[in-house]
Amino acid sequence: MLDRKRQSVTGLLLLIVTSLLPGVAAAEISVARGSSSAAPAQQSESAPEWVYTLRSGETLSDIGQSLLMDRVTIGQVLQYNNLPGNARLSAGEQIRIPLAWLKRQPEPARVSSASGNVMHVSGTTGQKTPLTENSVIRVGDEVISSAGTATIVLADGSELRMAPNSRLIFNRLTQYGKAGMADTRVRLQRGEVHTRIKPVLEDGARFEIETPSAVAAVRGTVFSMQTSASGSSVQVTEGVVDFGQPGQVRRIPAGYGASVSTASAIPMNIRRLPPAPVLNPITPVLTQLPAELSWQQDGANRYRVDIFEEDGGTWLQSREMPGHRFDISQLDNGRYELHLAALDRQGITGMPAITSIEVDLQARTPDLISPEPGESVNDDMPEFQWRLNGTNEVARVEIAEDEEFRRLITSSEWAPDNRALPSRPLSPGQYYWRVVSEAGGNSVAASQPRALVVNGTLPPVRIISINYLDNQVRVFWEKVDTAKDYRLQLAEEPGFNNIIKEANVADTTAALRLIPGRRYFVRVKALSDGPLASRWGPGRELYLD
After folding, report:
1. Which candidate, 68, 125, 391, 541, has a CA 20 to 30 Å from the CA of 409?
2. What is the third-level CATH fold of 49-102?
């Protein structure tokens, strides 16, 4: 019997509330156990409240400690809900709590992605720093995008995507209790934002965007908003937005846009948005490019395509164009969300058609053409040629001293060509070269290496320093890139006619033990695997006291 009374009270409350609040779905309103049919309506008008659902294992004492301000007791909450002081609630049951009774704490927003030139201005110090992924944004901070974009996640999981040339000021970032219900108020000083706000209860969490000419308050919706010196506009994709000049706010439902002008006497212009274009089928996973997004002609003259990374939410591109095709061949590997919308005669974006695609390109091993394996060349800037076997690939030639490419000497620039020159001249010696191809930004493939000999004479080796320590002398000399080893000679006269010591050294230094009081002379030359002549460097005198 008691359950039936509760059900009838619940139904009556839902009917009253939904009739008073047009445009708000009944599913958004929850009624707690023990509420009467009259009291909640009166209380909610004077004090905005939050309906909290108990979780498994949670007690009323837990709620008091985690959600309520110090001056508020759980007994007051029970009384507010017309429940006895010894009431016991179980998981899934609900109680109403006035917002004024909830703990308030500042809760910073966080940056989930940032690309290009975006600056973060501290509200406390005024210091400007580049905005990066995982940057923390606090009350009073500003984010200014010039040629970049940013995606910012609020305390309740709602998302703001900033377009280039925008300025956003965070005036309030407050979280109630522990469950992520937030009061967020930002000012869009210029530019454009796309928002995806999590649905919230009536008179619960609050999200508001203010511009110099208008304000938009939402409860849970997807919309975009623009502002400039001439006015502000909004386009609502899901849910509703209360938009307009202060004191002249109108409720804008999904599928409609509105604008206010600083130069017009008309307070607001409300219009239906152009419908979403009909997209032609596209392969969900692209393993080769080129590819294009296309759609059916619907009478619009211009369209707008916005491309977002599906994981981080980075706003990658925003393009306006005529026609009904868009080339997507420049996308790297990854998952993307594509938004396509028609533009009306005033340039206002309509309802978007949204599709997701994944680019998954695999680089293929290129075939080497020339020089031939082990070929000798006389040019210190030889041309390298190869053949690419994949689509939409770029490649570069890499040149190393060793076959394992641990000691890279030089390379060419990345390009979609099949031939290239090294970025700097090659000294005479033996080298190894290969071609590395790349597809999709992260898939690479490398050819097998080939040996190459650049003809000429190895440069003479210059001794750069000599250190004396007791009866030992350490000699240091310059490195020659293509040298395999070095030959060192020690003599007692500068003509090196009487060699008293000769040895091959793999390093660019050697230690010699000498007799004090006698003069010596040392010189070094480079050795190579290839058929290259080499010359001795100038000799240096050694003397130990």
Report:
1. 391
2. Membrane-bound Lytic Murein Transglycosylase D; Chain A (3.10.350)
